[in-house]
Amino acid sequence: MASNRFGNMFTITTFGESHGEGIGVVIDGCPANLEISRKEIQEELDRRRPGISFFTSPRKEKDRVKVLSGIFEGKTTGAPIALYIKNQDADSTKYDPIKHLYRPGHANYTYLEKYGIFDYRGGGRASARETAARVAAGAIAKKLIYPMDICAEVENLEKILSLLEVLIKEGDSIGAVIRCEVKNVVKGLGDPIYQKLEALLACAMLSIPAAKGIEFGSGFAAAEMRGSEHNDLFGSFGMETNHHGGILGGISSGSPIIFRVPFKPTSSIKQPQRTTNLEGKEEIFCLPEGSRHDPCVALRAPVIVESMTAIVLADALLMNRCSKI
Amino acid sequence: MASNRFGNMFTITTFGESHGEGIGVVIDGCPANLEISRKEIQEELDRRRPGISFFTSPRKEKDRVKVLSGIFEGKTTGAPIALYIKNQDADSTKYDPIKHLYRPGHANYTYLEKYGIFDYRGGGRASARETAARVAAGAIAKKLIYPMDICAEVENLEKILSLLEVLIKEGDSIGAVIRCEVKNVVKGLGDPIYQKLEALLACAMLSIPAAKGIEFGSGFAAAEMRGSEHNDLFGSFGMETNHHGGILGGISSGSPIIFRVPFKPTSSIKQPQRTTNLEGKEEIFCLPEGSRHDPCVALRAPVIVESMTAIVLADALLMNRCSKI
Amino acid sequence: MASNRFGNMFTITTFGESHGEGIGVVIDGCPANLEISRKEIQEELDRRRPGISFFTSPRKEKDRVKVLSGIFEGKTTGAPIALYIKNQDADSTKYDPIKHLYRPGHANYTYLEKYGIFDYRGGGRASARETAARVAAGAIAKKLIYPMDICAEVENLEKILSLLEVLIKEGDSIGAVIRCEVKNVVKGLGDPIYQKLEALLACAMLSIPAAKGIEFGSGFAAAEMRGSEHNDLFGSFGMETNHHGGILGGISSGSPIIFRVPFKPTSSIKQPQRTTNLEGKEEIFCLPEGSRHDPCVALRAPVIVESMTAIVLADALLMNRCSKI
Amino acid sequence: MASNRFGNMFTITTFGESHGEGIGVVIDGCPANLEISRKEIQEELDRRRPGISFFTSPRKEKDRVKVLSGIFEGKTTGAPIALYIKNQDADSTKYDPIKHLYRPGHANYTYLEKYGIFDYRGGGRASARETAARVAAGAIAKKLIYPMDICAEVENLEKILSLLEVLIKEGDSIGAVIRCEVKNVVKGLGDPIYQKLEALLACAMLSIPAAKGIEFGSGFAAAEMRGSEHNDLFGSFGMETNHHGGILGGISSGSPIIFRVPFKPTSSIKQPQRTTNLEGKEEIFCLPEGSRHDPCVALRAPVIVESMTAIVLADALLMNRCSKI
To answer: ipTM of this model?
Structure first.
């Protein structure tokens, strides 16, 4: 199956591994005549790249995006848009010492079960580096859904920032929750049964590495509320509260879409951890010298959350053109 | 788009409205030679139907499933399996008095925005009645994934049951959380990027009416944990803890899959509620006389959660046959 | 895979076997607010049913279509439309004597290879009876694509009709070519690479039982033409000739779409034929007493060709809504 | 829609324009552990490239394929395989003089209708150059379907070759028929209704630029045959004749698959042709100086036909893993 593809009408297909030649995305289904420049795509990418602050990963990539096709004289042509980011600074020899070990919290165990093979270089396809391709595609989706406006932020950012120095010293990591809000939402997006807007967004968010869940509007708290309290009443100018989170019966109501996504702490930590090797014998796993260490991957997640949200909304917007005669 | 379809390889397409002729499902992609009887499907259906206990909806349907195609001499043939449940006890005239009103917490507002039309009879397509078709399909999926074993239950069931009498008297409702665990999980299910097993399950769960979120394993709590605490270490017999919830890098690890889904309180309550009519003028909304009232829809949700989980796993199981040479 | 489904946006999923309960179709993706009546669907169905003339199959079915969902007060609602035709006059016991034999020209040999099982009753899923479901769906597609106008006809009809009496006497059959022309074609339908309008129509036509090929415009004759002769020149009012058959670069040009489809002679003939049984031993195959015998299945094919064409065009029309900003 | 994608399980998505940066393909769904080298892919590509003989186009590209992802240490990993071919020798300024004209036999007329924009440089996305990406993907598909063996050839090759010198002198072109045969076919490939193997192959072939039709086995001739003559009888070792062309009821029978595809004469000829400009005024169209001229594009088509056939069979082979319990 095309398991590296996302979307129905506005679709993205990503490719590439952490320490291979590069990563990229093919956007298939973007309407013609959308104005978009390489620079706008690059600006989104610059928001997620590692090495951008003192606290995040030291890998100093430039992540320079190249437009391989689909944009001509500043506009989309209706042809597939291929975007490509060459890998740099990717020395994979340092992974040799650990290639026979299961990495705690990592996917090489399950990849081996599934494929019988694992590209161990820096996480291979399982690396969060693949999300750069999503962000590049998201830049185009954002243009398409304008003036819908997506705002994602790390909850309790101050507190997390205050912990980073200690975490780096201890070689440990921490999780965080990203809250996302969409304003100026077009009414009528999403389809009522299996393409409910919540279902599509949930799928999109849970496809981001390290995401552990999602809740919309009142979310888990709704389970303890009464119907008389939870129902959003209709006043003359729409709904007066927003427990529903902007989606009703799977379809956008025009109220802001609100959801929250918890991210687990970074799996790659600098502390030694018990594990087994491929033969099942116990060993101690240590991150190779010079490995990147993000004490909190979630700090780079807002732009990824925004990108996937934009892609879902772009897709729903196009689909919605076919709902009525 | 085929927005009433779910799955890639083992697919379901449902049809039917709450107060129309009936509801049904076409299962396309079930392998040939699976033993299944009408009775097994009926038994699953009997677990969800309203009117089964004192506390739930008084609608006394028999929900008798009919096999229209795809099963011959007790076995699937590889042809599409159509299952059909005729509607009974469906007097739709009682909905006439409210057909010009937006129903608080309901989808007629958003349906009108999307389609410019609404089948107001008992919620039409937006009714939870559609989930009966999923349960019928789920019965077949459960057979296919055997011996994987799905256990869903209402959290805090005792407490909720103790509240029901009061809720019925007050005409109010309450939400609940469903916890789901899958045992004997085949390793290697799910695909690493956009068909991550969490993404597929999240999509499936958020497609259930009234679901407001999902979390896997440590879930929202992971956001406050350290990496050194959250990573599940590999011992000689697999992983020793299960913060990851049975899915790592999007692929099943063989540990039990664990997730929780919050359901909002039933939207249809017996209390008068403020709303507006289709012209935007304020009115009071009252549920028509004789309408069904489920004080807690989530009580009927476990079998639906199990069914959608089984459908996701059946699909992933088939897809997994193509992962290796 | 959803191999019983056709289309991207306007999709049909058919189910049912020749001698089972009945056959049906779920149309998913039809826009809301299209006016359509049960009677209009029935009228299309009446054009294909057997027993309608002296020369065609004696099976006297009524093929009465029932609308199970998706149409409310004479209009589509955006919900899936399920149409169902109950089987009648389907005595399957007569097939018992031949259930251990490979039927010449029939699919039971290949079904057994694929599925390890075969519903032998009257061809089961492989029966042309499945096409009734397509015709029912086609009736709705035709309404959607109005005023595009599809005209299909049997070539050399007079000659074929003059042969029928002899063929019936001899228990033999004959093939025919169906020519299809579409007028008032909307320009811009079809996508340039893998969803070329020719590719979609070719897929649709070769999915009809007994079809053996297709050619567009100049077709096979083009292979012997010069470019200077074949190119359709642009005059001030469009193209002056139509060798291209109405599709250029995969996209409709506005000229009439023209294609031809050859159908093989009916496989079920009344003459004894050599075959082998399931153990590979030679036997003589004779059609059971009272079996239907169509000396020329192609005579009933025009409405099927029209229906599949309408479904392709309806799908392309919806898709085309998303080609531009 | 993902209209630049082909296949269900073994899928290809192509991108790139004739005179842009380059062209490429992402193969999503290839099983892990398939041995494949860059050299094997290059060898297939070398079979289709222009400039390879005296008679074909003078464009002297190297068409050197680069593996961007998905292959590690000589084997597929289960990750998407991206192949890329940089464009060279692509001077697009020469197209300036004709960018305001409809090109006879070309797609710029229909592209403008569809997209409101056209990348006029050398045909843009509509150029046959896109087929290089298919051939690269086909090289991998061929490895996957081994030992199935695909043989495509130009019919009447001698006669066509004898005409080429005259055609070049006259600036004219000619069509041809490609005949394709597949040996050692696995039984049971293809699905009975809309994914019939003929339907998939027809879709694949009609997606090749300049293809005008297809016929299987007896094809158009079947329309004039009797059933008693056309039915392939079963002897003790399978079928004794092959009018069915290797596919029965949509499923491969194990007999060789045989089909023929007519290609129209090359549209780009060196003779002046009447046309209109974008304003509808008549002009004379002349191919720009230095433009490539293939007097018979079909001469390069066999490897393209083989590649698309291999992709269809690879897809069907994977799908078939899910047909039985």
So the answer is: 0.96
